[in-house]
Specification:
carbon-oxygen lyase activity, acting on polysaccharides; mainly beta; ten-stranded parallel beta sheet; hydrolase activity; twelve-stranded parallel beta sheet; Jelly Rolls
């Protein structure tokens, strides 16, 4: 459990504000990071728990029989269906405006009118707001005040035991809103409870809970209200706003516009692919033409096999194929049914000239998104909880010739976090390693809380040098430690790892921040090439902020800060006075650094950054 605001123990003798040089550098990087999505995981995180540690530290029980069990990954189970009420509380009684999200799987009901629920603003054992899945076929937003239950809103929803549902409950002032599988099911007002903890609840029901995340502030609406007969396996209705017309009924659905195919969790292979009669993703991938778009409706898509864009399934430089979230909705590709195995990737894009936009890919047995093709764009994707690197570029097959290694791909405004393999040494946030061509770029990306490195550009002797990679305007923090506090001793735990096996590759790393990673902030990792390392900021990484022990890399305008003692930076290469390294003390640029760096998204979507208690960019 980690907050996105990351305090570090300050020096007692340091006080005041950072100097203009560091402020300007942070402003430059973070202004670029404004292009990051304000979606599922990039708001300021107050609390998170995926129970993969095997424990439920931080939760307090009231009734029921609770334990952490394995359901693909760790989950929090309440096993007594005959319990009148079973609750687990977490968080702070002072939390006011926030959004809580969790996956919930009802596993049994004892009688009619029973439920499993996700709650917010709980002020006591019998007071809370809750979003409840009832076995009467309803999803309801409720205010529970002792024995009085007031229904704020709801909709008919098929609730099936053994099925995972993603619940999201937002409290902002007196406004309460609830979503199920990305579709809004209720919204209304209540002033009963102004602050309080989160709570997991069952009433005469057994259930499993997972992936609990609390984000500061109200969530943006993933979609409009679900239709009265919606079920988790049915397509959710699009927003009835000026930017997205209301969904026509299936009987009157027009054909999709030229080149457009619609996909929904309840779609079928043989369906027409219209908005009212959606198809499946695997079918749509074979139908979409160059210049066309596959729109994925919000909700969770459960897969046991890799979803592949096959080699040869290409767009063109002037007419890409696009795989996109439907506007305002969040499709989640969930591969938790896969075992951990190098063959079990999530989404594999081996074609060329694709644009993948707005997808969440989670819990694959290997990479979340694997890129074997070239000239692709991956924008505003989130890769999380996968059992190898979240998003990785490498050749498609061991027989793929070097001329066909993935090249000229752009990873844009993407986030990758909490990826962890069982050995704890391979799962990075992002990787372009082993077998990649030239021209691959990461821009405006955030990598955090992965078990190994934030970025890995490893090269090995067997296959020779990879192409030069550019990483710019990006952020790596807390790699080596998962969001739930879990760690593994085998991981390298660097922010940016830039090489391997004494093979020189001239990568470019500029305008990035590496903060509080478990080993080095930036490391050459036996890359003796001539890299360009410019305008980067490293703060409080566990060993060195910068470690470059060989090569002829060029260093300009880099800054290294610490709030306590640490290991001196080591720099071999072309460096000058424009850099400020850590050599036992802070230089003038960060002489007033007080030991805290934080960032969050304001209600309007702008990124707010603070360093040493001072707001440095908006």
């Amino acid at each position: 459990m980690r907050s996105t605001s990351l305090p570090v123990r300050p020096r007692a003798r340091r006080a005041g504000l950072v100097t203009a040089a560091v402020t300007a550098l942070l402003a430059m990087v973070m202004t670029a990071l404004l292009n990051l999505t304000g979606g599922v995981a990039l708001a300021a995180t107050l609390f998170s728990d995926n129970f993969n540690s095997g424990s439920a530290t931080g939760w307090s029980k009231s009734g029921g029989d609770w334990s952490v069990v394995t359901d693909g990954t760790g989950t929090f189970q309440q096993s007594k269906a005959d319990s009148e009420l079973a609750r687990q509380f977490a968080g702070s009684a002072s939390w006011t405006n926030y959004t809580v999200t969790a996956r919930v799987k009802p596993t049994g009901f004892s009688g009619s009118g029973r439920y499993a629920a996700l709650g917010a603003r709980s002020t006591g054992s019998s007071t809370r707001y809750q979003l409840a899945l009832l076995n009467t076929g309803r999803a309801e937003l409720q205010a529970v005040n002792g024995s009085t239950v007031t229904v704020i809103g709801g909709t008919n929803l098929s609730v099936t035991t053994g099925t995972w549902y993603t619940l999201q409950l937002s409290a902002s002032g007196s406004t309460l809103t609830g979503w199920v599988n990305g579709a809004q099911v209720a919204s209304g007002s209540s002033s009963l409870f102004g602050a309080g903890r989160i709570v997991l609840v069952t009433s005469y029901a057994s259930a499993r809970f997972d992936d609990v995340v609390v984000s500061d502030g109200a969530a943006p609406s993933p979609s409009a209200p679900a239709s009265p007969s919606a079920s988790p396996s049915a397509p959710t209705s699009p927003s009835a706003s000026p930017s997205a017309p209301a969904s026509p009924s299936p009987s009157t659905s027009p054909p999709p516009s030229s080149g457009t195919v619609y996909v929904a969790p309840g779609g079928t292979d043989g369906a027409a692919g219209t908005i009212g009669n959606p198809t499946t993703l695997t079918s749509a991938l074979t139908r979409v033409t160059a210049g066309g778009t596959i729109y994925m409706r919000g909700g969770t898509y459960n897969y046991a096999q890799t979803v592949t864009v096959a080699t040869g399934n290409n767009g063109t430089s002037s007419a890409r194929k696009k795989l996109s979230a439907y506007p305002g909705e969040t499709p989640v590709l969930n591969f938790s049914a896969q075992a951990e195995d190098p063959a079990n990737r999530g989404l594999a894009v081996n074609g060329n000239y694709w644009h993948v936009y707005g997808l969440v890919v989670e819990r694959a047995g290997d990479n979340g998104i694997f890129v074997g093709g070239s000239n692709n764009i991956f924008e505003r994707t989130v890769t999380r909880y996968n059992r190898d690197t979240g998003l990785q570029l490498s050749r498609t097959l061991s027989t793929t010739p070097k001329a066909d290694w993935p090249a000229n791909n752009l990873i844009l405004s993407a986030e990758s976090h909490d990826n962890a393999d069982s050995d704890g040494e391979d799962a990075d946030g992002f990787a372009a390693k082993l077998t990649v061509g030239s021209g691959n770029v990461f821009r405006y990306c955030v990598s955090h809380n992965n078990i190994d490195d934030g970025w890995d550009l490893y090269t090995k002797t067997d296959t020779g040098a990879i192409g030069a990679v550019t990483i710019e305007d990006s952020l790596a923090y807390n790699n080596g430690t998962l969001s739930n506090g879990g760690q593994a001793g085998n991981g390298d735990r660097n922010g940016f790892k830039l090489g391997g096996e004494d093979i020189g590759v001239n990568h470019i790393v500029r305008r990035t921040i590496s903060f509080a990673n478990g080993k080095h902030g930036f490391t050459f990792n036996r890359n003796p090439g001539s890299m360009t390392i410019s305008n980067n900021l490293a703060i409080n990484n566990t060993e060195r902020n910068f470690t470059f022990e060989a090569g002829s890399s060029v260093f300009r305008n880099n800054t290294s800060c610490r709030s306590s003692s640490g290991t001196n930076d080591k720099i071999v290469g072309n460096t000058d006075s424009s850099n400020q390294w850590w050599m036992g003390s802070n230089g003038s640029r960060c002489a007033s650094y007080t030991g805290s760096l934080g960032w969050s998204f304001a209600s309007g979507g702008n990124l707010v950054v603070t360093l040493g208690g001072r707001v440095v960019s908006l």
